[in-house]
């Protein structure tokens, strides 16, 4: 068994698609209308057949409450691996991304946390 799709709640699918593709660099794999929303799945450009990241609309009250509470507590909604946290941090700063935690060494990893502008904090990690 392996993870093939994971999702992240977003307040606005169009805004999230733009941020995750244009700013973060993910590649769009699926964009399929499903009722009033869409099945938008992204992948890493380095692994087109890898785990898909679903931009899930937070229309359910439980989803909205979950997203709001973990954000308020400073808890990242998910984590992405990067080769060099400092390099990625500098690249994203140039794109106007707001970080809540600058690159920080914690044990065997270096991490940073940023606001995805769609209701989430995202952690990037370098092993």
Automatic annotation (TrEMBL):
**What are the residue boundaries of the VOC domain, all occurrences included?**
1-127
Any GO molecular function: lyase activity
Q: Which positions carry the signal peptide feature in this UniProt record?
A: none
Q: Which Pfam families match?
A: Glyoxalase (PF00903)
Q: What are the record keywords, sorted?
A: Dioxygenase, Lyase, Oxidoreductase
**InterPro entries in the record:** Glyas_Bleomycin-R_OHBP_Dase, Glyas_Fos-R_dOase_dom, VOC_core
Name listed for the protein in its UniProt record: Catechol 2,3-dioxygenase-like lactoylglutathione lyase family enzyme
């Amino acid at each position: 068994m392996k993870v093939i799709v994971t999702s992240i709640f977003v307040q606005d699918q169009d805004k999230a698609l733009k941020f995750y593709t244009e700013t973060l660099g993910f590649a769009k794999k699926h964009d399929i209308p499903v009722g009033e929303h869409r099945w938008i799945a992204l992948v890493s450009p380095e692994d087109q057949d890898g785990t898909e990241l679903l931009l899930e609309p937070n229309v359910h009250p439980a989803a909205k409450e979950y997203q709001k509470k973990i954000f308020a507590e400073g808890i990242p909604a998910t984590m992405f691996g990067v080769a060099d946290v400092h390099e990625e941090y500098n690249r994203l700063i140039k794109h106007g991304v707001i970080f809540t935690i600058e690159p920080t060494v914690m044990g065997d990893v270096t991490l940073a946390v940023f606001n995805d502008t769609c209701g989430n904090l995202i952690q990037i990690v370098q092993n």
